[in-house]
Amino acid sequence: MQKKKKEVALPEGAGSGGTTGLVKHKAKDSVFTDLFRDKKYLLQLYQALHPEDKTATEDSLTDITINNVLVNGQYNDLGFMVNGKLMILVEAQSTWTMNIIVRALLYYAQSLQEHLDREGADLYGSRKVNLPESELYVIYTGERVNRPQEISLMEEFFKGRSSAVDVKVNMLYGTVNPQQTDGEDIIGQYVIFTKVFNEQIRLHGRILEAVSETIRICKDQNVLKAYLASREKEVTTMMMDLYDQDRILEIHIASEKKIAAEEEKKKAEKAAEKEKKTVIERLLRDGTFSVDKIASIVGVSLQRVREIEAGMLQEA
Fold first, then answer.
1. Which residues are paired to 80 by β-bridges?
2. What angle do CA 30, 35, 37 make, to 5 degrees?
3. CB-CB contact of 148 with 92 (8 Å)
4. Which distant-in-sequence residues (6+ apart) come within 8 Å of 224 by Cβ?
5. Is 88 in contact with 79 (CB distance < 8 Å)?
6. Residue among 29, 15, 7, 21 nearest 194 (CA)
7. Strand pairing partners for 88?
8. Backbone φ and ψ of 72, nearest 5°
9. Which DSSP symbol is given to 72?
């Protein structure tokens, strides 16, 4: 017998009307962007990638995460400037796909365009514009035996042939700073958080208990402890699905599919009726069969055959 899942009420402020929610399918993305929106953790991220840079401070970091105009929200990706360098981070979640290179490219292109706009760069002038040094990263949180350190647009999509555009993306799977001596760096901690979350979802399903257990376990293991302790209520709320855009989009798509199916059914019925009418008219002109027999052959009512016959007489 399947064990009945424990129902847990949402914390105050986690939704309207006390409705019990479900975990967002993109919950980890929300935590990803929220975590690194705090410059304290953003600096830790940069220091994990560049431990040799001792000059970077919170004041030298500029968050340039771009807005997704299509859904009136943010991408689940991160962009920031530090000491004139443009850093782009994309989260690949647990599904491995080389399309992540294209996603990084498009995000980079938009980030670069906005950077040039902020600088007032004249792309049509004779003076060469200043481009920031750029680094692209993907944080992969899934399980995979083959873990390349770098993936390339030219190698993966053009089989190494020369192309007008190439993008090289550095892959991150956990702790990247070998100088880290007091546990996982911030990247490693985030990856552990996602793995704990996935395990709790497997055990409990997409309910509040999975979120609560994820936060408890991670705090006990000193994983994002300070962040989770200071923003536990906000993190819980972020990770619950209360008819958010994903749910609304799913409902809209299902509705559109139903409407499309109904329209296709009506078209098919009209086409079938037209075909039957053509057959009946042909049989009536032939005169071989009675109206009763024609109704039986075509599979329509006797009244329908007589209606078509009357129409033919009027036209004549």
1. 63, 87
2. 100
3. no
4. 35, 186, 189, 190, 193, 218
5. yes
6. 29
7. 79, 136
8. 55, 45
9. T
Using CA atoms, how far apart are residues 59 and 198, in angstroms rounded to an integer? 35
Q: What is the DSSP secondary-structure string of 116-132?
A: HHHHT--TTSSSPPPPP
DSSP character at residue 174: S
Could you give the 3-state DSSP secondary structure of residue 163?
coil
Q: What's the pTM?
A: 0.65
Q: Which of 27, 60, 20, 74 is nearest to 236 (CA)?
A: 27
In this structure, how many other beta carbons lie within 10 angstroms of the beta carbon of residue 177?
17
Query: How large is the C-alpha radius of gyration of the chain?
Result: 30
pLDDT at 7 (0 to 100): 41
Q: Where are the beta strands (DSSP E) in the chain?
A: 22-23, 61-63, 67-68, 73-74, 77-82, 85-93, 133-140, 150-152, 168-172, 240-241
* Amino acid identity at 131: L
d(CA 150, CA 146): 12
Q: How high is the mean pLDDT in each 10-residue block of the chain (316 residues)?
A: 42 42 58 88 93 92 65 61 89 80 90 89 93 92 89 93 91 78 84 91 84 94 94 84 53 82 91 91 89 89 90 82
Beta bridge partners of 77: 90
Token pair for residue 286? 């032939």
Which tokens go with 105? 């490219």
Residue 74: predicted pLDDT: 42
How far apart, in Å, do the first and last CA atoms of the chain sit? 73
